[in-house]
C-alpha cells in the first residue's frame, strides 16, 4: 500500500510500505497459543471422562478436539518459522471449526441449542485483533450468513429466541470493527515511532541502516548498484545560536521537504542525526549520482527559509557521495568513505559535493 506522512504541514506520498505484522502482534499470537493448547487438552480430557456423552458423541468430540490440537501445533510450528500469516489463519480456524463442528455433532444427536454457536464469537474477536479490516469484515459476514442459514433451516431453533442471539452477534461484530480500527491505528502509530524521525517525518537512522544492510545483501547477489549521499548543513550551529533552536528546526523541516520533492519514490531518505542526512539511491551510476549530489547542493543553496517573518541566513550543505562496488560493499565502509568525502567537501570551502572516487584520485 502507499504510505503518506506529513512534513512541514504538508501531506507527502512516499512509496509502497511493506505490510508486515507488528512485533506486538507476533508476541501476542505466540502468547495466545499456550492457553489455547491447555484449554484444548483439558477439553479432550473432559470429553473422555465418564460423564453425559453417548459413545458416538464421545468419539466424534474426541476426533474434533484432536484435529484442533493438530491445527494448533501446526500454527505454533509455522509461527516459530516466521510464517505469521499462515499461523494466524490456522489459529482463527480453530474456534471456527470447533464451533461449527460441535454444532454439527449436537445436531446429529438431536440437541438443538445455542451453546456451541456462541463459540463462533471467538474467531470474530481474534479477527479484530490480528486481521486487516477487510479480512475481519469478510469473516464476520460469513459468520452472520451461516447463522442465518442455520436458523432458517432448523425448526427447533426457530422456536427459541433466535433474534436475540442474532442481535448479540451483530453487536459483537460492531464492537469488533471498532476495536479493529483502533488497534490498527495504534499499531501504525507505533510503527511510525520506530522508523520515523519525529521532527522531519523522514526515516530515522535505525531504519536507514537496516535498509542499507538489506539492500547491500541483494546487491552482492544481483549485480545491482547502490548510491549513498551523506551530507550535513554548513554552520548549522550558527543558525541555532543566531536565530534560536526553533529556527533550526524550521531549517531541518524545510530541507526534509526539499529532499522528498527532489528524489524519486524509490529513494530512501533519512535524517541520520542532528543536521546530518543520508540518502540511498537504487540502480544508479557514478555519473548520475554525481549529478544528483551537485544538483542537491544547488537546490539547498536556493532554498529560502523564514522564521517569525525573519529570513534565515543563506543555507548550504556539504556532501560526500559514492557508488557501491566490490571494494566497499559493507555498511560501515560505505559510511566511512562517504564521511571522508564529506570532510573533503568541507575542506574545499563547503557548499559543494565531493565523490569518494575524487578523494582517492587526489590522494
Can you offer a commentary on this structure?
This protein has 14 helices and nine strands. Strands 4-5-3-8-9 form a five-stranded mixed beta sheet, sandwiched between helices. Strands 1-2 form a two-stranded antiparallel ribbon. Strands 6-7 form a two-stranded antiparallel ribbon. With 363 residues, the protein is α+β, with helices and mostly antiparallel strands. Mean pLDDT is 84; it is low at 1-19. The chain has helices at 23-47, 55-80, 84-108, 115-118, 121-130, 133-152, 155-158, 162-195, 205-222, 236-243, 245-262, 286-301, 331-347, 356-362; strands at 2-7, 10-16, 226-233, 268-273, 276-282, 306-307, 310-311, 317-323, 353-355. 27% of the residues are buried.
Amino acid at each position: 500500500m502507499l504510505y503518506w506522512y506529513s512534513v512541514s504541514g504538508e501531506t507527502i506520498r512516499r512509496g509502497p510500505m511493506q505490510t508486515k505484522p507488528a512485533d506486538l502482534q507476533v508476541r501476542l499470537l505466540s502468547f495466545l497459543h499456550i492457553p489455547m493448547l491447555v484449554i484444548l487438552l483439558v477439553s479432550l480430557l473432559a470429553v473422555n471422562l465418564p460423564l453425559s456423552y453417548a459413545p458416538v458423541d464421545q468419539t466424534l468430540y474426541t476426533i474434533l478436539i484432536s484435529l484442533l490440537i493438530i491445527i494448533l501445533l501446526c500454527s505454533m510450528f509455522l509461527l516459530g518459522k516466521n510464517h505469521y500469516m499462515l499461523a494466524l489463519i490456522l489459529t482463527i480456524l480453530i474456534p471456527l471449526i470447533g464451533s461449527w463442528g460441535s454444532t454439527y455433532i449436537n445436531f446429529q444427536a438431536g440437541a438443538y441449542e445455542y451453546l456451541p454457536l456462541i463459540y463462533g464469537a471467538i474467531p470474530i474477536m481474534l479477527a479484530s485483533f490480528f486481521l486487516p479490516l477487510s479480512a475481519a469484515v469478510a469473516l464476520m459476514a460469513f459468520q452472520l450468513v451461516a447463522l442465518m442459514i442455520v436458523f432458517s433451516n432448523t425448526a427447533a431453533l426457530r422456536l427459541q429466541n433466535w433474534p436475540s442471539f442474532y442481535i448479540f452477534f451483530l453487536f459483537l461484530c460492531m464492537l469488533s470493527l471498532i476495536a479493529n480500527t483502533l488497534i490498527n491505528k495504534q499499531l501504525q502509530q507505533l510503527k511510525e515511532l520506530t522508523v520515523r524521525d519525529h521532527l522531519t517525518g523522514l526515516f530515522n537512522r535505525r531504519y536507514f541502516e537496516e535498509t542499507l544492510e538489506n539492500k547491500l545483501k541483494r546487491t552482492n547477489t544481483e549485480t545491482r548498484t547502490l548510491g549513498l549521499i551523506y551530507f550535513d548543513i554548513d554552520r548549522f550551529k550558527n543558525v541555532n545560536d543566531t536565530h534560536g533552536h526553533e529556527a533550526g528546526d524550521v531549517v531541518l523541516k524545510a530541507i526534509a521537504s526539499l529532499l522528498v520533492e527532489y528524489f524519486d519514490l524509490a529513494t530512501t531518505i533519512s535524517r541520520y542525526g542532528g543536521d546530518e542526512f543520508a540518502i540511498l539511491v537504487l540502480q544508479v551510476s557514478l555519473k548520475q549520482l554525481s549529478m544528483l549530489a551537485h544538483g542537491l547542493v544547488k537546490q539547498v543553496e536556493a532554498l529560502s527559509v523564514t522564521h517569525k517573518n525573519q529570513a534565515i541566513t543563506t543555507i548550504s550543505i556539504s556532501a560526500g557521495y559514492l557508488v557501491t562496488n566490490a571494494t566497499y560493499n559493507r555498511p560501515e565502509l560505505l559510511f566511512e568513505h562517504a564521511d571522508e568525502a564529506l570532510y573533503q567537501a568541507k575542506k574545499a570551502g563547503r557548499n559543494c559535493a565531493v565523490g569518494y572516487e575524487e578523494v582517492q584520485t587526489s590522494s
